[in-house]
Amino acid sequence: MAQSDLNQALQHIRSKNIPLTPQRYALLEYLYTRDSYTTVKDICDALNERYPHINATSVYSSLHVFKQLGLVRELAVNDTFLRYEAAICS
């Protein structure tokens, strides 16, 4: 199921002519294979081995794009702490 949702998300990005860098792909893959909310720090930690130059700023930037496309949901905890999850395309 996660792979199908990931494929739909990728198709949606391509249909909007948004550049899909390897880092953005890895970020989407990470989100769409998790079954709970995650933080930017968790994302950076998970992707850092494969992409050592990834940082919170680039992750936030990609999450903003994904959120505008409806591919990611954002949850504010205590109005300051943000968590993210895939917006499953059922």
From TrEMBL:
<dbReference type="InterPro" id="IPR036390">
    <property type="entry name" value="WH_DNA-bd_sf"/>
</dbReference>
<protein>
    <submittedName>
        <fullName>Transcriptional repressor</fullName>
    </submittedName>
</protein>
<dbReference type="GO" id="GO:0045892">
    <property type="term" value="P:negative regulation of DNA-templated transcription"/>
</dbReference>
<dbReference type="InterPro" id="IPR036388">
    <property type="entry name" value="WH-like_DNA-bd_sf"/>
</dbReference>
<dbReference type="GO" id="GO:0000976">
    <property type="term" value="F:transcription cis-regulatory region binding"/>
</dbReference>
<dbReference type="InterPro" id="IPR002481">
    <property type="entry name" value="FUR"/>
</dbReference>
<dbReference type="Pfam" id="PF01475">
    <property type="entry name" value="FUR"/>
</dbReference>
<dbReference type="GO" id="GO:0008270">
    <property type="term" value="F:zinc ion binding"/>
</dbReference>
<dbReference type="GO" id="GO:0003700">
    <property type="term" value="F:DNA-binding transcription factor activity"/>
</dbReference>
<dbReference type="GO" id="GO:1900376">
    <property type="term" value="P:regulation of secondary metabolite biosynthetic process"/>
</dbReference>
